[in-house]
Write a structure and sequence with these properties.
Blueprint lengths: L10 H23 L6 H23 L5
């Protein structure tokens, strides 16, 4: 069985990981530096969405890897 060694994720998954994490950072920054002045509820919802992104990003980056 010829399998790739466990190491760096493929470039597509790595790109998806960085996009997801970048989105997380942007959501947090926008929520608490801009949106909170108009709607605290919206800022909290944005933060909740941002809290779910890091685990999802880790799953995307490691999807299909053997262990």
């Amino acid at each position: 069985m010829d399998r790739d060694p466990v190491g760096e994720p493929p470039p597509g998954r790595k790109r998806a990981y960085f996009w997801l994490m970048g989105t997380c950072v942007v959501l947090i920054l926008l929520a608490w530096n801009v949106v909170r002045f108009w709607s605290t509820t919206a800022a909290i919802v944005m933060s909740a969405v941002a809290a779910v992104i890091p685990p999802a990003a880790a799953i995307v980056a490691n999807w299909g890897r053997g262990g």
